[in-house]
Amino acid sequence: MKITAARVIVCSPGRNFVTLKIETDEGLTGIGDATLNGRELSVASYLDDHVIPCLIGRDPHQIEDIWQYLYKGAYWRRGPVTMSAIAAVDTALWDIKAKAAGLPLYQLLGGASRTGVMVYGHANGRDTEQTVDEVLRYRDMGYKAIRAQSGVPGLEKVYGVGKSTVFYEPADADLPSEHDWSTEKYLRHTPQLFDQVRAAVGPDIHLLHDVHHRLTPIEAARLGKDLEPFRLFWMEDATPAENQDAFRLIRQHTTTPLAVGEVFNTIWDCKGLIENQLIDYIRTTVVHAGGITHLRRIADLASLYQVRTGSHGATDLSPVCMGAALHFDLWVPNFGIQEYMRHTDETDAVFPHAYTFQDGFMHPGQVPGHGVTIDEAVAAKFPYQRAYLPVNRQQHDGTLWNW
Predict the structure, then answer these.
(1) Across the strands, what pairs with 387?
(2) How many CA atoms lie within 13 A of 204 on its CB side?
(3) I want to staple 32 with a disulfide (CB 3.0 to 4.6 A). Which of 66, 91, 239, 339 is the partner?
(4) What CATH number is given to the structural domain containing 288?
């Protein structure tokens, strides 16, 4: 079998997605997600100008060799653009290999390790009362795990809280919008939020919270300690993790489980965090961490230290990535949880898929491959629209902060 053609499909059914489609001389095709939120065309160019010419004529079954070729052969390694492009190729090749075998992808990875994939949904509101109502709504929808985010009194905009309680898309403007931030107000409000959420939902629902890299290590330690009575499943992205040792200070002060990694691109970004047992969940994704091939290596390292997976799964990842992630989740021995934000009806129409949700769990389905396709005719109805993620500024003096 040989690769005969590959092309990039960019569309915007409510938000921008970049998809790579690979064709072979035996009629089999595979698709991979290459979406990098807010920088989509950078990856499209990397694929079109630098990767696709190198794929033509290669054997699509040689997944490992092609991965190494694209990683080592570029000389310039790592980074979100490179690794998202490699991930798209890798995911499409796994799709083709599984279709050639006539098997769902998880069977090629080693078979199912569980009957379903526990996922968490996003409950968010403009204030505590609305957030509590949303948490209860997600519980009634069958979710066993729920992330709670709330507006903060005195702040106009807060991460995780959008115009809709179901579909949250942070890339909201043609040029970056600006949000305000106050650590003091956030630290005062968040424990009060979870006091009321836990009281309303009871002890049996897993609760999660995303700090979104906004605290210093000692501030994150204080928040983790304040949240201990509410038994969170995890506290996510407590502080920027470029300095992996920052998590050592947080660990010294709190037993609240820590999760990080949605912006990581390779195993090197999380090596120290895992080996020093500074986190409990690694959140790397199929699309941003070099595809299934590299994500497996990260998970294998994590398993040695009882760190579990908790892959990012917001709507900045297309259904193609979600489908691939669910196959990975069903197989990976040290699975923890999978984030699941529902896509819009328009997105689902562009990307028909075999995966399903029921009673808090998802399953990738039994269709050969990863079970997600792209309707190119429908995709063509939604042309690319430039959209940036916001930036964050300190409320008291305008200093640019972490968004």
Answers:
(1) none
(2) 5
(3) 91
(4) 3.20.20.120
φ, ψ (nearest 5 deg) of residue 318: -80, 165
Average pLDDT of span 314-337: 97
Do the domain assignments include residue 262?
A: yes
Domain that holds residue 307: 109-366
Backbone φ and ψ for 16, nearest 5 degrees, come out as: -80, 135
CA separation, residue 180 to residues 152, 155, 201, 310 (Å): 11, 6, 30, 29
| CA dist., res. 154 & res. 132, Å (int) | 19
For 343, which DSSP code? P
Decide: 24 and 2 in contact? Cβ < 8 Å.
Answer: yes
Residue 402 falls inside a structural domain: no
What is the distance of C-alpha 358 from the center of its chain? 20
Domain count of the chain?
Answer: 1
| Residues annotated catalytic, as ranges | 159, 212
Planar angle of CA 260, 264, 266, nearest 5 degrees: 125
Contacts for 193 with CB less than 8 Å, ≥ 6 apart: 128, 131, 148, 150
Q: What does the alpha-carbon distance between residue 362 and residue 398 come to, in Å, rounded to a whole number?
A: 43
Tokens of 177: 């919008």
Distance CA 245, CA 327 (A): 32
The per-residue pLDDT for range 107-132, each reduced to its tens digit, is: 999 999 999 999 999 999 999 999 99
Model confidence at 160, pLDDT cuts 50, 70, 90, reads confident
Distance CA 350, CA 333 (A): 32
pLDDT of residue 159: 84
Q: Which residues of 314-333 are buried (b: 16+ CB within 10 A; e: fewer)?
A: bbbbbbbbbbbbbbbbbbbe
- Is the separation of the CB atoms in 87 and 291 below 8 Å? yes
Cα dihedral sign, 132-134-135-140:
positive
Candidates 289, 283, 306; CA nearest to 208 is 283
Answer yes or no: are the C-beta atoms of 135 and 146 closer than 8 Å: yes
Please choose, from the candidates 272, 275, 242, 236, the residue with its C-alpha nearest in 3D space to the C-alpha of residue 256: 236
CA–CA distance, 338 with 137 (Å, rounded to integer): 19
In terms of C-beta density within 10 A (0-12 exposed, 13-18 middle, 19 or more buried), how is residue 241 classed? buried
